[in-house]
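Title: Comparing notes on inverse folding

I've been comparing how different people in this forum approach sequence design from structure. To keep things fair, I'm posting one structure and asking everyone to reply with a full sequence. Here's the target:
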């Protein structure tokens, strides 16, 4: 890779022509499946954007109002994500239009997965997502006799039992902080994307400020590791509102106050922390803003409120295209979700292929190296040529996808 602009005639990048764009990133999904729950009437969707070697990967989410259009956008994002990181697997996504807090939610998820069994058995590697915990997914897979949600890939392994053992060991490995590696690796990747931004723009970590919308797996994990790195996390937002302290929040203490649904107990928040409305987080001053809660959090009607100098997307599709165009024209680059939040997906595949194991430091080092290098390339193009990070990321994805077409997937 080099610092000049990439285009379809750039021989150093290989055959990245209009045909690749049409057939891959901008193509219609390879498969769409719509399901209706016979008990509750809830709708569920599976969208497989691309298959590589017969496999696609992407989580399963559950939220009220989930649509097939949303799931399709997320599946395309997964296809881009796997390609940017050079993973030999396509992109997919599952979604269920149902409230995960409803006591019937577990049954809905079980029936959805049962209906998707042919895909889960042979082609679709899924995992946790919004409203669905990894532990819940694995419980459902156990009832289906599939063992673990990576089953479609594990079953292709030369040694399925050894691979399953390696995956379970990796997911359950504890870090030095006593956290499960599989639970926090995605948030760690987001933190490294933020630190990569600081490095690329010449900001000292101790003088860099970050605001984070969302305190769940991604947002909470990113906040934890940024705090550990000495970055000032000045604002954290959840469904109940925004917590703000310009000197920096005590991130570990606030994360300890989260309930089962990821909301911070306001009765125990220190008095020096300002409690503001939920939307206030958009306009608070910070070097980096991390939307880590919901899709389409930054929209055309609120993009002008963003006060940060850089946006790092931790949530899938956190910024609408119209809003991103507004930010870009205002000199605010957006590090796209398919890079910033790809840590968990990339790590899972490295684990499946035995490229990392149960030593957390190996995983941290691998992800740090790959995440920072990609952020550096994107911001290098932004600083040098004014090319939006998303466009540079798409070029990388198309180049990698072209090389992966026809590749036979090998899992030891």
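Reply #1:
Here's my take.
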């Amino acid at each position: 890779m080099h610092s000049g602009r990439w285009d379809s005639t750039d021989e150093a990048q290989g055959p990245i022509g209009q045909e690749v764009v049409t057939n891959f990133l901008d193509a219609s999904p390879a498969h769409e499946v719509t399901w209706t729950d016979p008990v509750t009437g809830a709708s569920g969707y599976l969208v497989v954007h691309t298959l590589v070697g017969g496999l696609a990967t992407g989580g399963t989410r559950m939220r009220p109002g989930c649509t097939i259009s949303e799931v399709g956008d997320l599946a395309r994002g997964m296809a881009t994500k796997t390609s940017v990181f050079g993973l030999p697997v396509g992109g997919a996504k599952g979604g269920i239009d149902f409230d995960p807090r409803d006591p019937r939610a577990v049954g809905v998820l079980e029936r959805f997965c049962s209906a998707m069994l042919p895909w889960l058995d042979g082609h679709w590697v899924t995992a946790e997502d919004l409203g669905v915990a990894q532990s819940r997914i694995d419980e459902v897979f156990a009832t289906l006799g599939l063992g673990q949600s990576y089953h479609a890939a594990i079953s292709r392994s030369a040694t399925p039992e050894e691979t399953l053992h390696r995956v379970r060991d990796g997911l359950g490995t504890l870090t030095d902080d006593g956290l499960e590696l599989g639970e926090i690796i995605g948030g760690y990747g987001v933190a490294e994307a933020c630190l990569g931004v600081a490095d690329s723009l010449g900001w000292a970590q101790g003088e860099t400020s970050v605001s984070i919308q969302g305190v769940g797996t991604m947002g909470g994990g990113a906040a934890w590791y940024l705090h550990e790195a000495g970055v000032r996390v000045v604002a954290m937002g959840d469904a109940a509102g925004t917590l703000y302290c310009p000197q920096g929040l005590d991130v570990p203490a606030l994360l300890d106050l989260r309930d089962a649904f990821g909301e911070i107990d306001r009765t125990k928040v220190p008095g020096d922390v300002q409690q503001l409305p939920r939307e206030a987080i958009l306009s608070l001053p910070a070097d980096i803003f991390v939307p880590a809660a919901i899709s389409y959090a930054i929209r055309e009607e609120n993009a002008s409120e963003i006060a940060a100098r850089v946006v790092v997307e931790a949530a899938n599709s956190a910024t609408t295209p119209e809003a991103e165009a507004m930010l870009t024209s205002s000199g605010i680059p957006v590090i796209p979700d398919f890079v910033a939040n790809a840590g968990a997906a990339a790590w899972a595949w490295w684990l499946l292929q035995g490229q990392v194991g149960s030593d957390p430091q190996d995983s941290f080092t691998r992800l740090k190296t790959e995440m920072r290098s990609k952020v550096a390339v994107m911001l290098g193009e932004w600083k040098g040529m004014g090319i939006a990070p998303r466009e540079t990321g798409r070029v990388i994805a198309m180049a990698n996808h072209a090389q992966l077409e026809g590749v036979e997937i090998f899992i030891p």
